[in-house]
Design goal:
The protein is mainly α. The protein has a single domain, classed as Cytochrome Bc1 Complex, Chain D, domain 2 (Orthogonal Bundle). Helices cover 46% and strands 0% of the residues. It is globular and about 70 Å long. 12% of the residues are buried.
Length: 108
């Protein structure tokens, strides 16, 4: 019988965990739901906040759209879409903010 090398289970788990930790958040409706964005925003109709397709359309020709929107998501604000303020979303990781902004801008 041939000997089969065994992989230390701890090394395999550590390698797998490192892979998942290093992956950026995926732009998806699931991420938007899990971060409760859908409480105020919808893809195509106005709710408390503007719809994502209107945001994407407004920023469609802006080369700095992702950076601008990322800053707005983290800092919050009001006056751009009416008087209802958007609370700051400072609890999001940079990867989550990036993924959410990419998701919103995908509606153009």
């Amino acid at each position: 019988m041939k000997a089969v090398p065994m992989i230390d289970a701890r090394l395999a788990v550590a390698a797998l965990a490192a892979t998942f930790v290093s992956l950026p958040a995926n732009a998806s409706p699931e991420l938007a739901r899990s971060k409760n964005c859908v409480a105020c925003h919808h893809a195509e109709r106005r709710m408390i906040g503007p719809p994502w397709n209107a945001i994407a359309l407004r920023y469609a020709d802006n080369a700095n759209a992702a950076q601008l929107l990322s800053a707005k998501v983290v800092a919050g604000g009001s006056g751009n879409w009416g008087q209802m303020p958007m609370p700051p979303q400072a609890n999001l990781s940079p990867d989550e903010v990036d993924a959410l902004v990419r998701y919103i801008l995908s509606y153009k």
